[in-house]
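G., the chain you wanted modeled:
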Amino acid sequence: MNCDAVLTSGNCIVNESMLTGESVPVTKTPIPHSHDISSSESPYYNPDEHKRHTLFCGTQVIQTRYYGSEKVKAVVVRTGFSTAKGELVRSILYPKPMGFKFYTDAMKFIGVLTILAFLGFAYSITIFIMYKVSVVDIVYKALDIFTIVVPPALPAAMTVGTVYAQNRLKKQGIFCISPPRINVCGKIKLVCFDKTGTLTEDGLDMWGVVPLQDDHFLPVVQNASDLPRGPFLIAMATCHSLTVIDGEMTGDPLDLKMFEATNWLLEEPGRDSTKFDNIMPTVVKPVTADTFLSEDASQIPYEVGIVRQFPFSSSLQRMSVIARTLGCRNMDVYMKGAPEMIASMCLKDTIPVDFHEVLHTYTKQGFRVIALAWKPMENKFSWHQAHRIARTEVESEMNFLGLLIMQNTLKPETTPIIQVLNKANIRTVMVTGDNMLTAVSVAKDCGMVPSGQKVVLVTGTPPMDGKPATLTWEYEENPKIPDIVDDVGSIQKHPKEVYTRDRKSVV
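Predicted structure as tokens:
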């Protein structure tokens, strides 16, 4: 791509490694129509808000998909140095000036010395005139005051120190195009880490699945392919953003592990997709012969086609797909994401009574937990409606299906690096979208949180339905008994209580 363009029709598989460093291809979908977006979304195009619909300059389009005679189209929105790549190049060539406190204090120090030099200069001239010293001696001796008070070698000494530090870094294979940043690095007191792929390994391992039965969680099923054919297994096989490139399945590591656990096949047919009325870009189906054919007497092949995909969004904490099983009259919606988010979008009577207890059990052990949900659409829900419906209308009144338990181990170099930073008195922070208890478990394993130290979880609820925003404080070891911060800031045992925005001590 030589420009930034917003996708208006069709889908694209894009390699954005040049901009993001991520080797996993990204699926780009058409930007929704203005009348299909929710009230919370802006009706105007925004590059930051609509990243999933934007083809950025410098990225490589690996694959395009379109339905029927509708071609893949995009509208150019930015060119040259205004593009994402252009802004990156411009920031490298012309870094923004940094107001470093050290230089500000240094200039204040020199200013104070200059004032003292002027006072000394005036005093010296007065004394020399009183003693009737010659004019030449007065000039020479008075100007000496400036060289004594304000050392002329001070800027040179600071520059030499920076150059020496740069040479030391170069010997370690560290290069810096902006020497003033070296002084900034010397003042670092806080380092933030991502969790998945940074502190932990890139790949995830499927540890097991926890399905439901009669509103209660069943024991863990280690082999997901042993599950009966139904919404849970289909959700695992369809709710992903995987694609086949050069004969190899690629996509998010979590999606890869989840799909591989089903032991199903993924096919991306070309134009010949008449079985699904020319609407299915991707088809998934079981591998084994006994499940490849449905139980119907007509022996229709058991295949599930993905009609539309709503990509994963970190702000929404979920993704979903609209799928249709071959031979069925209706379409289905499958969704996966953060357990708390998925539970909030499901019907209350489908959520198991022991949801929080089971979730706490697995997240406390450091597992990454993903929830699944499903709902059938009406028979009259057509393909055209599927591609025009707003995401908020689809992702509502879902039926809770169960949990996926993923295992993610620490990298071998994580703990030693955290120990080095701790010894240097540099604070370490983990920034992640995973469950809070999972993050705490990983932080304890790598030494980011010292053993024996108590962790307080803070849960915030935004204002809604006329109710003010709330904050709940609780210990990580026993989330059922919240601990409230009182007016003097000490943590005390307290019955379950919620602080509102009206409490000044909390704000």
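Residues 271-280, 480-507 have pLDDT under 50 and may be disordered.

Shout if anything looks off.
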